[in-house]
Amino acid sequence: MSDAFDAATTGDLEFTHQPITDQSFENALAKARDGDRLTVADGVELITTGTDRDGIDPRRKEQVLEAADRRRAEVVGDEVTFVANLNNNVTTACNTGCLFCNFKDRSEQFRTSYQDDHGGFTKTPAESREIVADAVERGIYEVCSVSGLHPALVLDDEHRDLLEASDRGDLNYRSPAEYEVDPGTYCEQIRAMNVGGVHVHSMTPEEAYHARRGTDWSYEEVFRRLKRAGLDSVPGTAAEILVDEVREVICPAKIDSGEWLDAMEAAASVGLDTTATIMYGHVENAKHRLLHLKRVRELQDRTGAITEFVPLSFVHEETPLYERGLVEGGASRDEDELMIAVSRLFLDNVIHIQSSWVKYGDAQGLKMLTCGADDFMGTILSEEITKRAGGGYGEFRSVREYADMISAIGRTPVERSTDYEQRRVVDPDADVVGPELGPAADGTPLLE
């Protein structure tokens, strides 16, 4: 077993799945180079650079990265894509209690009876519409919205009536009258964000589960209603690690891996594109990571709806996992690079692999583009950035920065739509570089 995934990483946890194989690194690498479909054992050998020795072997690591970069070039060429987008998260109110999360705020603190400052937020549909409308005028193509599970958030008015009439106490529901701010319904929020032809990317499987609680509605019914409200695609977050023995440690109150897969398959069945993610570098081991990749690949075999795969390196600071001593840190740089590379090699049916500059930083994010990744996220124009024009709230990447950074590593910058169907090659030498694909974009920079 590689010491990158040993008990020092997982504390005293004992998992059934362990990174032990009867495969060899050399055989796995040969299969990867030949383009053969890899097994879980193959992937474990590649992501650990061989279970026959401790630690990550630098020479073997470079061989894996080279194979992945070659595969990337064969599949997508030298283009590096990005999307002009906005993050508009509706609420931080949540009481799911995931141990890896430092985003949510206990929902009880949002109730009118709570008098202290809690630092979180909830937006009304009207506020969401104003934020998105302003960003569309600036030139964005996509609004991405992923939020906490506010107890007052329901699918629609019919769903609220059912929950109000229910005498069950296990539904994580409270009337919006109990809160300082009424978040409305999911459908109202989606309609509010559906402004001027912008692409609405929202409703994770976890949120879809929240939107059908207390009913006998299927995930298909939930996503049909959301699609009618203006939903265009579904982010495959809340996946974390799709192995239940890991989920029971890091997010015991969340849906299990089967529910996540059911929801994603349902979204695809009603005609919605999806993405998929992995959140790694906490208590899981190499076997868990590859079992996750296998389940994503099988889902894509069934649906063909996954437009991109997004590895997300766990940020440990200020999370309960770290505070409780279950982890000492996140993934190493070597592990990050191998995660990207093995994702490219293992997911032979997913065209695009994303490098997250938010997670990796600029320099390492660019390095990931030589490890198998071909997409570099989006502008992530947040409302805080809009108000403060580059202040200390949120993150922002301009199209000019994209053009300069991507061309500096010898690759071609390409502005894309969410589904990758619309693409515009960006000329880094042009006076004005965009964005241009958004419904109101005219090449003017998002921020002056």
Compose a concise summary of this entry.
This protein is an alpha/beta fold and 448 residues long. The protein is built from 18 helices and eleven strands. The radius of gyration is 22 Å and the shape is globular.
Description:
The chain has a four-stranded mixed sheet. It has helices at 7-10, 25-34, 40-48, 58-76, 125-138, 157-165, 186-193, 205-210, 219-229, 244-250, 257-269, 286-303, 320-323, 333-346, 357-360, 362-368, 383-388, 399-408; strands at 79-83, 85-87, 142-145, 199-202, 233-234, 273-280, 306-313, 352-353, 375-378, 412-416, 423-425. The N and C termini lie far apart (52 Å). The radius of gyration is 22 Å and the shape is globular. Helix content is 39%, strand content 11%. The chain is an alpha/beta fold. It has 18 helices and eleven strands. Helix 12 links the parallel strand 6 and strand 7 (306-313).
